[in-house]
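Problem: given the chain below (322 residues), write out its structure.
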Amino acid sequence: MDKYLFKVLDRAPRSFVYKMLRKKNIVLNGKKAAGQEILKPADAVRIYLADDTFAKFASALPGEEKPEPSGGALTEAGHRDRAIPLKIVYEDQDILVIHKPAGMLSQKADAGDYSANERIIDYLLESGALTRAELRTFRPSVCNRLDRNTSGLLIAGKTVRGLQEMSVLLKSRSVKKFYRTLVSGIVESPCHLTGYLVKNHKTNQVEITKESGGDWIETAYRPLAYFGNGTLLEVHLITGRSHQIRAHLASEGYPILGDGKYGDRKLNQKLYRETGIRGQLLCACRMEFPDGKVIETEAPQEFRTAEHWLKQAAGLPKKIGT
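Solution.
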């Protein structure tokens, strides 16, 4: 119970909370409480404080100060991201799966950001699935992350149960995650890659090595179609590490088109000049859950544009699979 109260009265000293419990200004089911009780569904916690006292010790609810978020004014990019329509791919009582567009953060990095997480919370408030009062004690959150310039499926827990269940499934790798990407070069056959990933925190880049010392990684891929000197791949992300797909494919000589960190700089510059595409062509397109549920989304239009750009001199692509 005391943990619940510390979330509601997040600006109050602990001593104040316990004092209010002793004086029965805070009660549980109409009776005096010590704060160590385990709360159960249908329990009633009542707080008897003056309005000004409550306002002093309870933070403003997320979303109350619109159009600006708590923590500061939105940046220009934040206002842009806020205007992007939310694309819902799947929703049930406990989870929500959206298609995150490239360019949007999964979670905010600075106060002025407006990430997919904030967009999801706004949607739940607007739809009535969440109340502002409930945000005092529980904040829905994304369960997996995608790089800013990677598009595709992003899972959010709408309830505590949803967050907990998704956390267990993702941590145990019970959810299989598949990506589509366009790479430079001809990939002739499926491959299962393993290695170690070492991150350079100064440059925010990673290096792939065969020697131990970093995080163990596994990446599997298979070619789907050829476009000139490019290949459309389906990638199975077996372990989920920062920049794993981008760095692993680049280390094999198949850099992702548009990737500014690990890609072919000259090719990417030409791609941008002639198509306007900026950012890696990588999309989280499919998730397979252990109960048999499959959630899918389509790669964005930029993929078709890049495919046409690649095949102009090579004719129609050679289909390999689905």
